[in-house]
Amino acid sequence: MKKSEVAKLHFPRRFSAGTVAKKTVVYVVLIALCLAFIVPYLWMIVTSLRTEMAYNSTGFTLLPIDEYGNISFHFENYSEAFSALDLGTVFLNTMIVCVVNTVANLFLNSLAAYAFARLKFFGRNSVFRVCLFSMMVPGTVMLVPNYLICDFLGITDSLTALIMPFLMSIYNIFLLRQQFLGVDKEIEEAAKIEGAGVFRIYFRIVLPLVKPMLIVLGITTFMWNYSNYLWPYIVNTDPALRTLSTSLAELMGADYDLTVKLAGAVIVSAPMIIIFFVLQKFIIGGTMAGAVKG
Amino acid sequence: MKAQTKQKLKRNATGYAFILPLILYFVVFQLAPMLIALVISFTNYSLEHLTDYTFVGFENFIELFTNSVKYPMFWSSLKTTFFYILLTVPANIILALVVSALLNSKIKGEKFFKTVFYIPSVTVGVAIMVMWQQMLAPDGLINQLFGTNVDFLNNESTALVVFAFMSIWGGLGYNVLIMLSAMKNIDPAMYEAAEIDGAGAVQKFLYITVPGVMPTVFFFLVTGLISGFQVGEQMLIIYGDTTMVQSVYTYVYGLYYTMRRSCDYATASAMSYFLFVIILIITLIQFRVQNGRPKFIQKLIDRRKKGGELVEKV
């Protein structure tokens, strides 16, 4: 046995000086990287609480100090951002779109996914394959075609235009179908013997069994609709129909102090970040589920 | 016999009742839009010709590809998109590999780091752009930190690099999440065997970790290419639908310009289809490579098993 191996046997690795040094390097690198994420957010929040004059008269700081070096909070940036965003209307618009799309998605997607997973009917696999093929068309490619159809249907410049094209998601049907395939068939057969109808079995028995996946898809659908910028920007021009994202983009391009713009960004992004911290388990789970297909 | 047909009919009816919403949705918001756009890409349908449009054959496509007076940015926008992909895709993969390996080295606070890196993924895209726009301004955080005075977003030589950086920064959390779970699937026996052979951390990373997560690297490569070709939303948010900074004029940014500024729906449709063809080719190549994958993976598994057996023997 070599000398170094004997040493290893007597001194477990975690006590050796080399390992400690290595670990320290790992921590230093990771913490430095962490700062690259935390500092921008901290800077945004702090700057949104200062005045433009204080901002211009000091260098880099992560403290809400005024031009004389005293700590002071300026919440008036937030009330200004509030009215600049037209937050009442815009928030209501966003919530209508998010809630309708999330509820519709969960119900309609699971309905179709259940049929593809369990019901036997003529042409089931062909229909499913055609749908899968359409998943290859990316969202950016669909933008112009979707605008044309909404124009054709006469629903541009309305909240309907933000809802109808996103009522369902083929991708989520695909994910839900996988879940349904994993459900034990015996439960359904037992219910069938008891005389339960197909819809009843789906809604009362199978759907509750895939609740974790429904929660994951509900959150991701809600978040996607909440953040979506491109589509509302393309299809709606009426200021009364703006959503949080398009309204913030409008504020960003307008002539306001940077403190007010940052306050607007905090207002718009805070709800999603808070939801993330509360429901982290599900959101991370959703990301993993989405990556499985790779 | 008759009862059987009746039952079959009922089964079919139930099945189609369940997928009726999907069929309606699919026809109206997937199939019809694509067909309409296809037809329109062969017409001169635009704001000036909303009612009196005519068929022009392949003229829109030919004009896009050859008329450098009418579409001066077409080829350069493709080049810009390529540059952006070159800047982001390799960097994304390398960073995800390195950071995941660091997180996988039995350290404390793995969950904390993962959470912090993931915050941009759940921040509204426009809010992130507001934040970076202010940080990258001449009097912003970045210039304050480095004592410089560069207008990063309005400088031809820095703008695209800055967009690539923002995208790498924003995507790290997601990439690490995927990469790390792939790394955790690697058989620990492999590492033990390597340790017995006296391999260091770098060697283990290069000869076990990287080959072990090759399928994930391939996944990042394909998704990176596909999303890279669609880049343009960030530019749209920062500059609006027209910009003086030519180095950030990507293909999709040009698509938005044609759509919203020029209201040239026919050309925008043609551009959408051209983009679709590019992405379709990438996807088909992916299928080709993936169909040849099981053999490659089988080899890796066999090799790993051998490593395991060796460990048992020792």
Multimeric organization: heterodimer
What number is the mean pLDDT of chain A?
89
Q: Tell me the structural class of chain A.
A: mainly alpha
User: What spatial form of chain A do the alpha-carbon principal axes imply?
Assistant: globular
Name of the CATH superfamily of the domain at 86-254 in chain A:
MetI-like
Number of strands of chain B: 0
Regions with little confidence, pLDDT below 50 for 5+ residues of chain B = 308-314
Order of helices and strands of chain B: HHHHHHHHHHHHHH
Tell me about the biggest sheet of chain B? none
Computed over alpha carbons, the radius of gyration of chain A is 26 Å
CATH class category label of the domain at 86-254 in chain A: Mainly Alpha
**What composes the largest sheet of chain A?**
none
Question: How do the helices and strands line up, and which of them pair or pack?
Answer:
The complex is a heterodimer of chains A (294) and B (314).
Chain A: H1 3-10, H2 17-47, H3 52-57, H4 76-85, H5 87-117, H6 124-134, H7 139-153, H8 160-163, H9 170-181, H10 185-193, H11 198-209, H12 211-227, H13 230-235, H14 244-253, H15 258-278, H16 280-291
Helix pairs in contact in A: 4-15, 5-9, 5-12, 10-11, 12-16, 14-15
Chain B: H1 2-40, H2 59-66, H3 74-103, H4 110-118, H5 125-135, H6 141-146, H7 159-184, H8 188-196, H9 201-212, H10 214-229, H11 233-239, H12 251-261, H13 265-291, H14 293-313
